[in-house]
Amino acid sequence: MDFLEIARARQSCRAYDEGRAVEPEKLEAVLEAARLSPSACNGQPYHFTVCRGQAAKDVAMACRGLGLNKFAVQAPVVIVVSEEPYVKSAAMGARVKGNDYRSIDIGIATAYLTAEAAAQGLSTCILGWLDDPKIREICGLTHPVRLVITLGYAKEGDVLRKKVRKDLGELVSYKE
Ligand SMILES: Cc1cc2nc3c(=O)[nH]c(=O)nc-3n(C[C@H](O)[C@H](O)[C@H](O)COP(=O)(O)O)c2cc1C
Fold first, then answer.
1. To the nearest whole number, what is the mean pLDDT of the chain?
2. What is the pLDDT of residue 11?
3. Is the CB of 12 within 6 Å of ligand 1?
4. Where along the chain do its domains lie?
5. Mean pLDDT of 133-160
6. What's the CA gap between 72 and 77, in Å, rounded?
7. Is 163 helix (H, G, I), strand (E, B) or coil?
8. Which of 32, 154, 163, 173 has the most CB atoms at less than 10 Å from its CB?
């Protein structure tokens, strides 16, 4: 699969096959992709807590609310992405330039992770609706939880949806 094929295949999965475990080597590949992602000053200001079994269920429950994310309990693996402190140079850059590099870095790592999952035939959903204090308690984390990623195999019959995106003409402009 080339990258565009992966990008077309990846979609947010909200129906998982609860009976199908994620193979350890596939989980490792997905985490390795995140590890290889670029970050400001190579600071890698994130940590991935891989939750399975009861921990996965507990974290999934902490992502529910207002009718959202009920499906998350079906996922056999739930990855909690927490934010680590800046390295000195990135902290200085963020201060001087007024830019939030940590959120950008976490977004890139998450994109790598979910893209590799798609390449492995796995499905994911990135969850931003989450209860930070509760998940920190479940996972024993002291730093903020920024995202949760559900990971597993899609339920049979979960079809690839048409992508709804702005046109390139709206997203891109050229200047010379
Ligand atoms: C930062 C972020 C937070 C998100 N939070 C949620 C969420 O809490 N629940 C959910 O079902 N989807 C969530 N999504 C998934 C988006 O709704 C989804 O990526 C978008 O609608 C595009 O659809 P696609 O992923 O199927 O291509 C989130 C995505 C991102 C990038």
1. 98
2. 98
3. yes
4. 3-171
5. 98
6. 9
7. coil
8. 154
User: What pLDDT digit, counting tens, does each position of 50-64 carry?
Assistant: 999 999 999 999 999
Residue 114 in contact with ligand 1 by CB distance below 6 A: no
Ligand 1 pocket residue status of 61, Cβ below 6 Å: no
Alpha-carbon distance of 32 to 36, in angstroms, equals: 6
Is 3-171 in CATH node 3.40.109.10?
A: yes
Nearest CA to ligand 1 atom 31: 126
Q: Which atom of ligand 1 is nearest to the CA of 163?
A: 27
Q: What integer is the mean pLDDT of 128-154?
A: 98
SS3 of 2, please? coil
Instruction: Give the pLDDT score at 66.
Output: 97
Q: Which of 160, 55, 79 is nearest to 127 (CA)?
A: 79
